[in-house]
Predict the 3D structure of the following.
Amino acid sequence: MIGKQEITANATDHELSEMRALIEERSGILLDQSRDRFFRPRVLEHMEARRLVHGAELLRLIRGSNVEYDRFLERLLTQETSFNRYPSMFQALEKRVLPEMRMKKFWESPRSLRIWSAGCSSGEEPYTIALTVADAFEFAEAWNVHILATDISRQALDVCERGLYPARELAGLTPKQRDAYFAMEGDRFKVKPKIKQMVTFAPLNLANAVYMGKFDVIFCMNVMIYFSDERRTQLIQRFFEYLEPGGYLFLGHAESVAKAGVGFEPIVVGDSLIYRKPDGGASHKPIPAGKERL
C-alpha cells in the first residue's frame, strides 16, 4: 500500500531559495543561508509529512493554498517555549516596570494597563506577563489589565486559546504560582479564568503596519531575529510610536534598538537590558499607605 511506502524527499538549492523568497514576500521573515542548518531539515521533514518527493511539488502546494502555506510556515517557526523562560526579564517587569506603572497610573480612573506580546507563539509569554501582573499588583482586580497577544500562526493561537499545558512547560514557575494560576485537567495544567481574562489573542503579521492603539509595555522577544535589518528598523520605530510616554520595550538578548534611530533610553535591571520611551520628566503623586484598595 502506498500509505506505507517510505518517502525520500529532496529539494534543490534553487527550490529552497524560491521558498525563502516566498516566505519573505508574504510574511516579512528572512530565512537566509545562515539559517540553512535548520531550514533545509524542516523543509524535508514537512515534505515527508505531506508525502511529497520533489521541492517543486511543495512550491506548487504553498503557492496555491493559504492553508498549505500556513502549515508549512508553522513547521518552520515552531520552537520550544515555556513559562517564565527568561526569569531576569520578568523580574525586571515585576520589580522595575510594574511598580513604576502603578505609581504613574494610580490616580487615573479607571486605572488601566495595556501590554502587547508581539509574537506570542503558544501563549506562555503573555500568560507569564499576566501572572506577573497578578503577583505585582496586590489588588489586580482594581485595574483594567489588557494584554494583547498576537502571532502569525493560527495554530499557535489555538493552543493559546485552550490555555492547556504539560507540566514541563511550567517548570520555571514557583509552586505557589502553579497553585494560584492553574488548575489540573487530566495530566495537564489549565490557565485559570482570572489570568486568562487578562489576555486577548489575535492573528497578526508583524510585517504589516497595523495600528492598535497605545501600550504601556511591549514584549517582542526573539522575533526580530527572523527579519531583515530594514524590517527590524521599521518595527522598532513602530514600537516607539505605539508606546505611551514612559512606556517600556522588552527585546530578546540578541536583539537591540541601536540601529533604529529612535530615542529609547536603555536601562539595565539586574541581568536584563530593557528600553524606555522618554516621558518628558513627568512626576507622579505618591500613593498614600493603605490606599491600594481604592
